[in-house]
Amino acid sequence: MRLRNKPWAVSLVNQHPESVLDRPDPQNTINWTDRFADDTKPLEIEIGSGKGQFITTLAEQHPEKNFVAVELQISAAGMILRSKLAKNLNNLQILCADAANIDCYFAPDSADVLYLNFSDPWPKSRHEKRRLTYKSFLQKYQKIITPHGHLEFKTDNAGLFAYSVQSMNNYGMNFDFVSVDLHNEVHEIIANNIETEYEHKFAAKGNPIYALHADFEVK
């Protein structure tokens, strides 16, 4: 979902190169060690962070971990940055870039968890390859997720959820948790669930939230 243009966002992003990488060249390796105050912490990545409610809350609750918010829209990156600065989150970095190059921006086996929250469903068949759970994306995720890491996915779109379950199953992934109504689960996962902006909006309308956790076969 495209956000309205925020004229202030570009200026704010440009003022904070220490916190935001704005559309870096995928041919150049990013040295994440230099971008975090403590690079020994486990790394978790959210692809498509939107306004940043999920990732900034997660970073605030877990100072023992490092996080990267990957977001294509500069206006959204600016909103995440504004929240990061307000909360003084030195364990959060922002990468304004296309997720299609995700395996160029992170080293193999570098992330423990990868989050996909309310991704664009791209419902038309001709756009299947753009879906973030398409097999080519799964292949890129497998490269950067550690052997003991996993992927967490949430959506309100039943079609995208069904497609994603099939795509991951065909890829050979293992499912640790699957729900077609996350907010009504009696499970420790919902007790620790952090809502995104869209999740709050959709759930308030009574829409079910679909979710899954999955990991890859041993490489």
From TrEMBL:
Signal sequence annotation: none
Top EC category: transferase
Keywords, comma-separated and alphabetical: Methyltransferase, S-adenosyl-L-methionine, Transferase, tRNA processing
Residue ranges, annotated region (Interaction with RNA): 126-131
GO CC annotations, alphabetized: tRNA methyltransferase complex
Record keyword Nucleotide-binding present: no
Pathway where it operates: tRNA modification; N(7)-methylguanine-tRNA biosynthesis
Pfam families: Methyltransf_4
Sample GO molecular function, one term: tRNA (guanine(46)-N7)-methyltransferase activity
SUPFAM superfamilies attached to this UniProt entry: S-adenosyl-L-methionine-dependent methyltransferases (SSF53335)
Binding residue positions for substrate: K124, D156, T196, E197, Y198, E199
Cited function: Catalyzes the formation of N(7)-methylguanine at position 46 (m7G46) in tRNA.
Cited NCBIfam families: PRK00121.2-2, tRNA (guanosine(46)-N7)-methyltransferase TrmB
Stated family: Belongs to the class I-like SAM-binding methyltransferase superfamily. TrmB family.
Name this protein carries in UniProt: tRNA (guanine-N(7)-)-methyltransferase
Organism: Lactobacillus bombicola
